[in-house]
Amino acid sequence: DAGVTQSPTHLIKTRGQQVTLRCSPKSGHDTVSWYQQALGQGPQFIFQYYEEEERQRGNFPDRFSGHQFPNYSSELNVNALLLGDSALYLCASSFWGSYEQYFGPGTRLTVT
Amino acid sequence: GEDVEQSLFLSVREGDSSVINCTYTDSSSTYLYWYKQEPGAGLQLLTYIFSNMDMKQDQRLTVLLNKKDKHLSLRIADTQTGDSAIYFCAAVGNDYKLSFGAGTTVTVRA
Predict the structure, then answer these.
(1) Residue B37's closest chain A neighbor by CA?
(2) Dihedral through CA A46, CA A52, CA A53, CA A57, nearest 10?
(3) For A29-57, how does the pLDDT look when each residue is reduced to its tens digit (9 = 90+)?
(4) Which of B45, B48, B100 sits opposite A43 (nearest CB)?
């Protein structure tokens, strides 16, 4: 049974560019949440997707957007990248309404 | 929103018990969690406790919850070198959004 997978593992982008990160949830899970973890800090909630809709959103600007596909996988898009967007981006999956979230290994984004 | 605070560092001798402490602010928090993060890796869910419990034991891990003081602790018995990692306390309310502390770096010395 595959756990949560994310791609790519690492990514280097330039300021102003756009990036797309991908997540496949744990088998059977239908809900995906995204978190940003800056160096030396705890993860910060970005948003959560269920039934292809954004259900919850944290305190992040509109430059951060997402999508969920019918197979429950999800994408995180960040436009107009800033240096401060450099972080580990974590995806977590769960059953809708469950309090147990399982995390993937993350995508390390570096913005230069 | 929820604020979660933890001490930043803990050094413990191999074989001793480790105790990591955490405080949170939102009294409506439903579940409280402990996650482990090893270098370059994602978060591993270690254990969690429902807010109406005051203790949960799972092998070497014991979670204690003092709901009145909004204080959570994780005790690791017989700490091993493989327990060296960053440990995150997290809380969730009815909105299902996890709020994390900044993490406690645990170093196990021989």
Answers:
(1) A105
(2) -10
(3) 999 999 999 998 999 999 999 999 999 99
(4) B100
